[in-house]
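Worked example 3. Consider a protein that binds EPZ.
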Amino acid sequence: MEKIRIFGNPNLLLKGKVRTSGSKNAVLPAIAASLLTDEKIRLKNIPLVKDVFSMLKLMTELGTEYHLKKNDLTIQVKKILSEEASYDLVRVMRASILVLGPLLARFGKAMVALPGGCAIGSRPIDLHIAGLQKLGATISLEHGYIKAEAGRLQGADIRFDKKTVGGTEHLVMAASLARGETVLRNCAQEPEVSNLCELLVKMGAKIDGIGEEVIRVNGVSELGGAVHEIIPDRIEAGTFLVAGALTQGGITLTNTEPAHLTTIIEKLRYSGAVIEIEKNKTLRVVGSSEIKPQDVTTSSYPGFPTDMQAQFMVLMTQASGTSIITETIFDRRFLHVNELLRLGANIEVSGDKAIVRGKTPLSGAEVIATDLRASASLILAGLVAGGETIVNEVEHIDRGYEAIEEKLNALGARIERIRG
Ligand code: EPZ
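Given these inputs, the predicted complex is written out as structure tokens:
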């Protein structure tokens, strides 16, 4: 198990420049999309994070060849050696499920382990399965595996019972090679979904309504190669904006996409942070010594992202007053609360709400990371806690943040990784 030791300072002044990496949640479906063609897909600005390597391991097992040169990935699936995504791979990275639809659409069959739940919730994939069945797939669940077969998929009119990022991405990919038109209703509108659709269009897919709640796909018989830029990671950027809002030194973020951060910027400005949107994808944030409390409810894009809930909660522990944070997306995404309490926070959970009472000085302690964004929140809290914080089981953080210690230390933090 790996640990991170943080030498915290309540008067920390983080300052300097940090470059945001490409989006984890955009690159994972883009890698799955390479299964839809036998030609080369080149993805630029990819983040070198654990989940990317997990996805590439799965793709290799399926028979894919890839070449990675720093943040530039070229991937090609001329044929597949196997159509099975094993449990070992799926359980460590749920997004593996996204290979099911592309395998089905291109090769007519697939066997993918049913992903279990995870720390933040039960994470069902019923909407993915129901959608693929509507496209004509025959799907059975056997010994923990989803067994799927289909001739050529047939376009259909599909409405998602609830907004699902992965479900929308999954069905857009499958529908791209289906016969006829597919209409997808109540689609997720996250930028990562749009970034995937733009890749598919470059590959020859016919997609209308990108970024809207209704997406229409006219299936084609085959897709080709493409060169595509992965969008900046808005959650990593949001995490660093919170770090800047917690301290008063002034941080400049480069390689961001401010248009994807509107709600996050709005909430942070309301809390007192000064955030300037500069030219060429640059943001500048300076925290305020007086942080205002505010209520936040997570929701699908363009609402406040659930992936920023834990990080924002840390900021609200330093606000002068009470804030209510409501988590509407996942049923168990408050696991970071107990660990923040160990650091001295005053938070009470009641159902889908966390009542955060500030301002509470934080003091360093040993804590345990439970999931990716909880890890980020514990590191943020450790930065401004008095004394030393040790975050245990910190491997989670590497799933979605590239070189987080290096980036924070370059801004003036004092963080070190303890391996062992
Ligand atoms: C994506 O997960 C992200 N992961 C998550 O980021 C993010 O939190 C989530 O979207 C919401 O924005 C990736 O993109 C790889 P959903 P996904 O399907 O697609 C329910 C991170 O920290 N649901 O939009 O799995 C589900 O239980 C990760 O980077 C069903 O009920 O999320 C949840 O309550 C964590 N049935 C809600 O929908 C289904 O078939 C939204 O889930 C699918 C989902």
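Take a moment to read the result before moving on. Residues 24-25, 28, 95, 121, 123-128, 162, 164-167, 188, 192, 306-307, 329-330, 372-373, 400 surround EPZ (CB under 6 Å). The two ends are 6 Å apart (CA to CA).
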